[in-house]
Amino acid sequence: MGEQVHNRLAMVRAERKVSRQSLAEAVGAHYQTIGYIERGQYNPSLDLALKIAKFFGLPVEALFSLEPFRPLTDQVYGRNQ
After folding, report:
1. What whole-number percentage of the chain has pLDDT above 90?
2. How far is CA 62 from CA 1, 20, 30, in A?
3. Measuring CA to CA, which residue among 60, 70, 71 is closest to residue 37?
4. What's the DSSP call for residue 6?
5. 55: helix, coil or strand?
6. 60 φ, ψ (degrees, to nearest 5)
7. Contact at 8 Å (CB) between 33 and 24?
8. Is 7 helix (H, G, I), strand (E, B) or coil?
9. DSSP 64
10. How does pLDDT run across 30-65, given as a tens digit for each residue?
């Protein structure tokens, strides 16, 4: 599969109260694909990653990264890296 792409998709989707099904329909994917991406079992294509970012109105790097994301509490409360 190559290098794993880390993501915050499940967290953002839950925060925005968006179902896998509705996200999938909006970006032209199958709802199971969204689940596979969230669990790190599938790396999205660049096209799909950009569509997902556009759907949420976020830069793609806010949702996807080649490096693991720091916990949001660390980022918000300034814990050292």
Report:
1. 78
2. 22, 18, 22
3. 60
4. E
5. helix
6. -55, -35
7. yes
8. strand
9. E
10. 999 999 999 999 999 999 999 999 999 999 999 999
